[in-house]
């Protein structure tokens, strides 16, 4: 399957909403529940410092990643608030890896330089954690009972970071 990674535009808004809603159906896959994925949320993502989409040859948006640079001067070298979504029917095909590779390349070329990437992964999502580890992210901490799933159970967040030095 051929996938192109490119910058997202407002023309992608509805496709990204549909993508995030599909991914959010699985509890713990995304922080937001399907009803929390709105056009306004996606417009904010597109307006982030970086927002990339994975697009199949037929135009289907099968993945998206976005992140923001920290605004406090001490942390201005950090890209965080990272969210990635891959359509459930397209997972396991390397799309998440391609999105992260493009994000890392973007971060390395950014001016002023971005030297650190940060993310949090739900402890109940071992596939995502394995992906982040393969990409070079390191475990840096754990936030106990950070998330509360729809069934009332709590889930820890695994804090992960990557230095681009």
Automatic annotation (TrEMBL):
Classification via Gene3D superfamilies: 3.40.630.30
GO terms of molecular function: acyltransferase activity, transferring groups other than amino-acyl groups
InterPro entries: Acyl_CoA_acyltransferase, GNAT_dom
Sequence ranges assigned to domain N-acetyltransferase in this UniProt record: 3-165
Alphabetized Pfam families for the sequence: Acetyltransf_1 (PF00583)
Swiss-Prot/TrEMBL keywords: Acyltransferase, Transferase
Segment forming the signal sequence: none
Name by which UniProt lists this protein: GCN5-related N-acetyltransferase
Species for this entry: Caulobacter segnis (strain ATCC 21756 / DSM 7131 / JCM 7823 / NBRC 15250 / LMG 17158 / TK0059) (Mycoplana segnis)
